[in-house]
Design a protein that fits this description.
about 30% helix, Rossmann fold, six-stranded parallel sheet, Alpha-Beta Plaits, 6 helices
Length: about 220
């Protein structure tokens, strides 16, 4: 995987380090040479000083072979312009842009860009914790669905997953085990003591589900 990141701030640098550790080919572009110090000595990707909106700089970064393009500067306009160049001119398959203004985020999603709106994202995280500390609706990036963490109680031990599922409202999609790797269950997977269930939940049904499952 070949990833180009424009902006070596806190988000861009952390993303670059994570991807680099995972063995991805990473190129980071920033207008300030000093910004690259955030990457640390372990970063084994490429750094380029320049304007991430410039086609010439993007070509220097090898954008023609890019799989994913990320724009994470502190300017909405720069992020959107760079993303449009990557998507429209260089036809990068996946383009992700950070946008601070939620109103702009709504508009630019219609252009086929993956838009991350930090205020909305962070507010959603706080909202989830207010509603229930086990809830993470931001993982699915929608207000309609969430991911709910459920600890198996003694009454469920020995029962199959399909007795916990509530069609159209809650589907168990993964199980974290006390020992061993997480699993993706079938409807017949038997629940064990201390299992942690991860289920996709319809947000409108959250209170109902919590009453039904008594947790």
């Amino acid at each position: 995987m070949y990833v180009i990141i424009v902006g070596c701030g806190r988000v861009g640098s952390e993303l670059a380090k994570l991807l680099s550790l995972e063995g991805k080919d990473v190129v980071v572009i920033d207008q300030k040479e000093s910004a690259f110090s955030r990457l640390g000595e372990s970063f084994n990707g490429i750094t380029i000083k320049g304007n991430g909106v410039s086609p010439r700089v993007l070509q220097e970064a090898g954008i023609e072979k890019g799989d994913i393009f990320c724009a994470f500067t502190n300017s909405d306009n720069v992020n959107i312009m760079a993303s449009q160049v990557a998507k429209g001119i260089f036809k990068i398959p996946r383009v992700i842009a950070r946008v601070y203004d939620p109103r702009k985020a709504v508009i630019y999603r219609t252009f086929g860009l993956d838009i991350l709106s930090e205020p909305t994202f962070f507010a959603s995280m706080i909202r989830d914790k207010i509603m229930d500390p086990r809830l993470s609706s931001y993982l699915i990036e929608t207000n309609e669905l969430g991911v709910l963490e459920i600890a198996v109680n003694k009454e469920w031990v020995g029962k199959p997953v399909d007795e916990i599922n509530i069609p159209g409202e809650l589907i168990i999609t993964a199980i974290r085990k006390k020992e061993g790797s997480p699993i993706i269950p079938t409807e017949k997977t038997i629940l064990k003591d201390e299992d942690i269930l991860l289920g996709v939940v319809k947000m409108a049904s959250l209170d109902k589900i919590k009453r039904l499952l008594k947790f």
